[in-house]
Amino acid sequence: MFLKFKDEVETVLADAFDSTEYSADDLRIEESAHADLASSLSFGLASTYRQNPATIANRIADAIIIPADSLIGDVQVAGAYINFFVSKKFLECTIRETFGAKESYGAGHREGRVIIEHTSANPNGPLHVGHIRNSVIGDTLARILKKAGYEVEVQYYVNDMGRQVAIVAWALDRFEFDGGKKTDHAIADVYIRANQELGEDPDLVCEIDSMMQEIELGDEGMIDRFSRVTLLAIDGITTTLARMNVHHDQFVHESQFVRNGDVASLLQELDHRGLVEMIDGALTVPMPEFDKDLVVRRSDQTSLYVTRDLAYHRWKAERCDSMIDVLGADHKLISSQLCHVLAAYGVMEPKIVIFEFVSLPEGSMSTRAGKFISADELLDQIEKQALQEVTKRRPDADAGFRDRVAREVGVGAVRYDIVKVSPEKATTFDWESALDFDKLGAPFIQYSHARACSIIRKAPHVPELAEIDLSLLMSDAEIAFVKQLARFSFVIDTAATELKPHIVAIYARELAESFNQFYRLSPVLTAPDELLRDARIGLVECARVALSNVLDVLGIAAPESM
């Protein structure tokens, strides 16, 4: 409903220009703490028309005509700002829309096919805390885009030809593989041992180089050895991702682009277009604008990860309208170079979402040195602490209930604590803050949903929409909550357009806060009369719907009881 309100504001504001001497391409409409929407366009027009911004604002506001039965209730000028306020119809339509849409509430009507790639961790060990920020941001973005209306395919790009895989394949012939462990953790054990041995005897590195040349040439035995490593690692990784409620539609292996000839044809075409030159035996794309050239084929004739990545992006570009890559900050340079080559080559560039790293107070993480905290360990610890909190709050509940809620709260706490921070900002995961039911994290939002469900269960009668007198919902807290409900589709659309999932996380918290404020100030089950009680129960049902939907977009469970 808020998007429709914004559309009406844009229309009446643009129409007002017909009665004034002013015109503007950018109406500069935005949310405001002092109104439901506000326009600051007067500031931009002041220098053009050499008039006081406040004078311009008043003249434009006087020319605004609000249609009958509009979602706009009032227009006021404050200084140089033109402020717009919603009408009673807006409030009633929001409640009706929430009731009618249920699970689809907040959905948009964007069109197009989007391929989003995220996580894509090297198959040389388990996911660690650094990886899961990628996973959570990527998965949440995919959910947001789907809610906005796009057709979305989520891909994991499997690096099954890299040096790390070669090292593990080499190690599996030298060291015992612990079949009793989760496969990705067992892979990490042999990888760490292999790096120690390679460090002690550098002459062994030539064996790794030889293996990489053999797989590049299509040696079937080497392909099988690399595939075994990859499958073992990915099996463990996908188990961890599923535990976090993260899912991929397709696993694309980089080796396919070597084996099917795409990499060879790509190199030929780059050469044909004059984009590469030979430097010290290596095929290189000169990049003076980056102060670092891009090698796309080594002097030993083997391709690099970026070469195969270019072929992968060319393949993706033929299958979608838009590509999104979620990458860590250490990929800024290489992703910029990749986009530069794609643009020169005439292939659609991906939209890059760069995130800074998440850390734990324990310090940095490195798979190579064996100094990392795996995502599994993090989830085990957070669920253990969540179980203590749930047991403290619900000591009489059965063990099955406590375990289930602890899992839902624990995973939700991790996901929310990661996604609530804008991707470009570094963050440290705080165990205690993430699990605090009173500090407006995921448990707070989940508990708000459970509270709404509890009220509905206890209600003597859950009214249908036709039975509700919407005119009774007139208190400040009720109106404020309905306005928050209305913002859902607007927030989804904004997050999808700007590729900023933290916008939805912040909204979820604000929605829960607003619901709790309404609940505190407007007694529901003890309302003074039956009609008001039914109207407020109807608003609680709207809260249940919206909180459930926004938690789903965030990939977080919405418990009905906690």
Beta-sheet strand percentage? 5-15%
Task: Using the alpha-carbon principal axes, give the shape.
Answer: flat
Number of helical elements: 21
Number of domains: 3
On the 0 to 100 scale, the average pLDDT is 92
CATH superfamily of the largest domain: HUPs
Number of strands: 14
Low-pLDDT parts are: 363-367
What is the architecture of the largest domain at the second tier of CATH? 3-Layer(aba) Sandwich
Q: Mind explaining what this structure looks like?
A:
With about 550 residues, this protein is of the alpha/beta class. The chain has three domains: about 80 residues, 2-Layer Sandwich (Gyrase A, domain 2), CATH 3.30.1360; about 190 residues, Rossmann fold, CATH 3.40.50; about 180 residues, Orthogonal Bundle (Isoleucyl-tRNA Synthetase, Domain 1). The chain has 21 helices and 14 strands. It has a five-stranded parallel sheet with strand order 7-6-5-11-12, sandwiched between helices. The chain has a four-stranded antiparallel sheet with strand order 1-2-4-3. Strands 8-9-10 form a three-stranded antiparallel sheet. Helix 4 packs across helix 18, helix 6 packs across helix 7 and helix 6 crosses helix 9. About 40% of the residues are buried.
